[in-house]
Fold these 4 entries.
Entry 1:
Amino acid sequence: MRGVVFLDRDGTLIEDSGYLRDPAAVRILPGAAEALRLLSREGFLLAVVSNQAGLAKGIFTGAEMEAVHRRFVAAFGEEGVVFDAVEYCPHHPEAAVEAYRRTCECRKPGTGLADEILLRLRVPDSCPRFVVGDKMSDVSMGIRLGASTVLVGTGYGNAEKVSGERAGIAPEIFLPGMREAAGWIVAHRIGS
């Protein structure tokens, strides 16, 4: 194991089409599958951590979320990518669905899901960690984890870069997409 890469889903690996409830709408972003195959070949664990507040907001049902999840995993599987972990936070502090209304540590920028994955996969403290996403919540989670952070320009990335700069939050590097992020991660590990 050369490291663990925590990945956002919507806008980073697949097109962000708002609150995704239709499995047929899952579209892998150009270069994403190729990037993940590279990371996997190089010995990195791949862990998806995603906020899915659409469940809390009543926009989609648990069954719809699970159907999208299965299609997401299957779509990457068809491209030769196997994830070591895929976790979602369904909570939101202002949820319409009371069962999901809470402030939690699993919702990014919280590190709850990432911490659970690290324990479950028995990742040693000395193992390098990387976080790749298109939002500053991904970057903030990475900073809290002590990870190297990559903000990608896909999804909300370009707009988030500007808002993050205004708020004084910055990723370690800003790159156009997953292909470049994977190349940077591999080179970063070789150079360290």
Entry 2:
Amino acid sequence: MQQKINTIAIYCGSNIGGNPAYLAMAEQLALAMVEANIDIIYGGGNVGLMGAVADTALKAGGKVIGVIPQSLVDYEVAHEGLTDLHIVDSMHERKALMAKLADGFIMLPGGPGTWEEFFEVVTWAKLGYHHKPCGILNTNHYYNHLIQFMQHAVKESFLHADHNDMIIVGDSPSSLLQQFLKYTAPKTSPWIKKETA
């Protein structure tokens, strides 16, 4: 089931990382999405890679929608120049609304919060709760060890190979977005095995 991609949720760090490549690639992704007429959904912050993605897209004329808990607004990290900003009561509400608004999900370099949010939507895809593409932008080989670990999990029978294959990996914004636009979700979740006579 192929679907049109109008919006993509971006999960990324609230820091810019220790290599200039992380910031440069985040900005390239934002520009590529604007060029492809894809709106950005993200966590609503004005710091780190999050803020860079938003600022770059806005300057290029793109549409950026933020979703942020009130506690982080109080902490003064909310971006005030977005196309739209949804203020919610909790992190749970933030994740649910981002998932609802997005047609796909991309993880950039980041820490535990980034990983947790991305793998939650991957888990939902695994269970068949949605059929949206989930991708990793592997900037500067940041996620090489994670990708190797997922392959190890397949080998050790803790992750189904079909589930691992559902995660799209690209080392550039163009390659990743091209795969997103061609993505066809499984007709049923690979987790649900058909009974054989």
Entry 3:
Amino acid sequence: MYSSRRFGYSDDPWFRIGGYPVSTTAFVVGLGVISMIIWGIEGRFGPIFRELVLVSENFSLGSVVEGDVWRLVTWPIPNEPHFWTIILFAIFYMLGSQIESLLGRWRFAFFLVALTLIPAVIVTAVEAVTGITGYVAGLRMVEVGVLVAFAAQYAHARFWPGIPGWVIAVVIVGLDALQALGDRDEYSLIVLACTVAVALLGIRAFGYATNLTWIPKLSLSSSSGQSSARDRPSRSRRRSRRGDHLRAVPLRDESVSPEIDALLDQVSSQGLDSLTRKQRKQLEAHARRLRRRR
């Protein structure tokens, strides 16, 4: 129905299982579901997960400070089987799928790695200097980062029951911060602060969330996320594309009607959620006409 390939960023799945396309978002959620099953079989700090979580050295589980450097990237894998974990996965899938369509699969994968690695490196460095204690595990912090990035790009997207996305992000980050403060959990507080910072700097560095001018825009090389030639737009297409901050829009051509052009501009400035049902049907019909023409 829609395609981000118009702007040169491939949103094709990495592979398929049967007929189901496995995107980066779907892969991460699938890994989380498998991790809950393993957690239930072996227990909280079983022989597998005790080697994956990010912990300070006083936990007697091993730590990055003691040489277990793989923990810097494996800590989101262990997820406790719980009803709220399923809700977390559902939210991550909904928001992550939209950010992946926006960025493309390579850059979204790079974004998730940054959300995982950078906070872990910083909190480990602080631990080595100050001796703070704590641990983090599970997809929760990464989900917060995806939520913050989504809210930064689609600040006025409406969540049920009509609450703007930026309000949801502020409330959730604020509650997590208050909980960490109440528990005197400096370890988690540092990871949370770093996650929010990486999410905001990352989405700005990719060229989105242009309304947040107070966030510095870092320069990323063209090789960020090791994107392939198919994933990167040509120089001429980069100069000529309109609304490159779209999540996904129908392909347009020179013969597009003014009405459709206005709808595309609305999607460009306000996101797909701003369209009415009738307007969505108009865009879908436009996309079908283009497919038949091709």
Entry 4:
Amino acid sequence: MKVGELFKSLVEAVSTRPLSREKIEEILDDYGLKLILCDVALPLVDELKRTLAETLEGRRTPLFDRDAVKKLVEQELTLFLLKTLGDTQIDLVEEARKSQKPFKLLFIGVNGVGKTTTIAKVAHMLKENGLSVLLACSDTFRAGAVEQLGQHARALGLPMVFKKYGSDPASVGFEAVHQASRKGVDAVLIDTAGRMHTDINLMDELKKIKRVVEPSYTILVVDALTGNDAWNQAVDFSSHVGFDAVILAKFDADVKGGAALSVSFISKKPVIYVGTGQKYSDLKRFNPKEYVNSLMSLV
């Protein structure tokens, strides 16, 4: 062995040590608890701990092994999100441009999560990129739903399709798609009722709308502030209706930050955009690396 190699080996021996299973589990238990307190779903935390314990046992790490483990936790979480996103993250503008017209987006989610406002933000984004947009209110159940979406339609200068309360929600979606096809509109954005996600009648209604409209994408809107209920919603909507992607509303106000990880883990669907404020322009592409860095700064 050369002198340089011998010196390098000596430095490594005195400045690193192999991690024992006991030490790994102690550190991971600590990080696991902190992640749970940040609203990361318990099943994800358990899977993360198992994966890292297997990866780390016997590995030589710097004597400040807690920092080394934290770095590996960051890497593992980022890798998980990137896998969930797939090869290419869904860009709704690009998808609308290359789609057969009209590009159809069906938005689902419980009341109060910011679904209608999120629809307005997506409509604004598409319009700002030169695409024509038609809004449709298939929420014929909640009092004020038509008026709420109508306010956004007027503010954005967009046409809207709606019917009287109590009408068949699927017929509103069908009429909107028919009008868009006839008038050459690029994209149709369909709002839906958001009674509790455990309401089987609502789920049946959503399934009918989806069957009639045949959306290009079904998007679940989740309130980032709802904590662990976010992934309960993802479970129910995934099993009953199905969706292709998630938009997290009120992301800027979420001091805990675990909702994005939890929803992606439980549904195996990507978070594609996050709401970052009250303005129509406050919609941002989701960045997994930035997100994980921010989350780990809390733990």
